[in-house]
Amino acid sequence: MSSEPLLEQLIDSLRCLPGVGPKSAQRMALHLLERDRDGGKTLSAVLAESMERIGRCRECRNLTEDETCSICANEQRDRDQLCIVESPSDVIAIEHATGFRGRYFVLMGRLSPLDGIGPEELGLEQLAEQLGQRPPQEMIIATNPTVEGEATAFYLQRMAQKHGISVSRIAHGVPLGGELEFTDQSTIAHAFSSRLAI
Amino acid sequence: MRVSLEPSYVLHARPFQESSLLIEALSRSHGRVGLVARGARGVRSRWKGVLQPFRPLLLSWSQKGELGTLTAADQVASPPPLAGESLFCGLYANELTTRFLQRSDPHPGLFERYRQLVAELAVGDPAQPALRIYELQLLQAAGFGLQLEHEFGTSDPVREDAWYRYVPESGPKLRKYEEDRAGELISGAALLGLKSGQIEDRHLKELKALMRRLIRFYLGDKPLKSQSLFH
Ligand SMILES: [Zn+2]
Fold this sequence. Notes:
The structure holds two protein chains of two kinds. Chain A is α/β, with parallel strands linked by helices. Chain A is built from eight helices and six strands. In chain A, the strands form two sheets. In chain A, strands 4-3-5-6 form a four-stranded parallel beta sheet. Chain A has a two-stranded antiparallel sheet with strand order 1-2. In chain A, helix 1 (5-14) crosses helix 2 (22-35) and helix 2 crosses helix 3. Chain B is an alpha+beta fold. In chain B, strand 2 (20-27) and strand 3 form a beta hairpin. In chain B, helix 1 packs antiparallel against helix 2 (108-122) and helix 1 (84-100) packs parallel to helix 3 (128-141). At the A-B interface, helix 7 and helix 8 of A face strand 1 and helix 1 of B. Bound molecules: zinc ion. Zinc ion binds at residues 57, 59-60, 62, 68-69, 71-72 of chain A.
């Protein structure tokens, strides 16, 4: 295929997608060219427009094509509960799985010094400003239970305490329908140490 | 080369290729190593949740080039995870270690120090003395050993009751001029305490300032990111 530079470029470009190696990239390119040119044209147009027009919400940093996202723009959403998540996919997951009616702040990452990510990169100055101007009653920290997620949670906790906001952390533990026997040690340890009185 | 059941700690893990992780680990006999954990980002990976920093692990890997391929990761014990300020200190130690140590340069003594540091951080002790001693040993391992016992220039022994100005790459110089800024001065007692590993509480502040200044000197214009956590 080396004599077809454009085709090669297409295959190469598709590899920027997560989980797409050279083989699947080639299959995708050939599929669009051989069987679905219309689909391919729509994809390229929507892709180009999205890359241009989708930016970040000025309030919560989530992805949106407007200045503020639909959740922040919705006056029905409760300003007293602020849920902090690492990524836009976490917002989608919580929206689908829960009846949460509060608002979000999306970090777009987690504190990870070795990746060059500190408070500044996560927009925490912006968050501090918001907490000062319009403090919610409760901050719900929904970062992941990794070392970096925990460090981020602790940093957020201190920020909230400075503003007199109560803090909660979502629970982590044994998956529903799962069995202790097949749950890894660290999850069991975590679930055990954060057990609840019933 | 095959390495099996090597006592190690994960310093950092980052996504690598489609579903793998690139692990930077500190091992006892092989120093800092870069290991590829194949498929570790998959939902069903057997290493899910295991390849996390601050956990004593026994790692096995095979190595041909610069990067090794992880073949097994066994958790030795489940110490309490680091929390709060200790977690920040741990991330600081990991960043420092990664910045100063080259890959495949073994320092078993440093590994032991690291293990002790993590153990102290895990029980939530004020780990400041342990951090200073670790910094000192890490600098030494990186080829920047500090002169703490003898005065620069004269080679006179450092005196407990004297004040010094520490010159990077050279050593302590006896304070001569009143105009030496107090912030850069360090007592002989603090230097000797650091040397012996018996750091007294009253010297913690000046030793922290000294080490911070020296670390900045050796790292140059790219400061440590983890320092932004301590505010
Ligand atoms: Zn928004």
